Amino acid sequence: MYTCMVCGNKSKNTKVNRPGVIYHAITKNAYMRRKWLKVFGIDRCYDWQRICSDHFSEENYRPGKKRFLLSNAIPQPYDQNGFPSKYATQSNAVEIGNNVILPSEQNMPVSK
């Protein structure tokens, strides 16, 4: 069973009520992982934690029958209804798009 670390959705509940919800593992790419965590205002997470698809827009997925996240996808701190999640940060430094570079990360190398 998975639980979304952002909104608390549980896979045992959504499997029946909302079968389209996917639980994504936190990316292993260190640069993108920092960006994901910064959106939610948290410092660290564990590899077993998940973020549900409610925090990604349709543009974050490759087209096709099976939904795969794009490598540059960044989750957002709101739920599927557009309400802030309980972990949403009030900071103005939160990234709101896929193409925004945070000032402190401009010169960071991207690992492949």
UniProtKB/TrEMBL annotation:
Keywords: DNA-binding, Metal-binding, Zinc, Zinc-finger. The keyword Transferase does not apply. Residues 1-78 form the THAP-type domain. GO terms for molecular function: DNA binding; zinc ion binding. Pfam families: THAP. It comes from the Eukaryota. The keyword Phosphoprotein does not apply. This is THAP-type domain-containing protein. It comes from Macrosiphum euphorbiae.
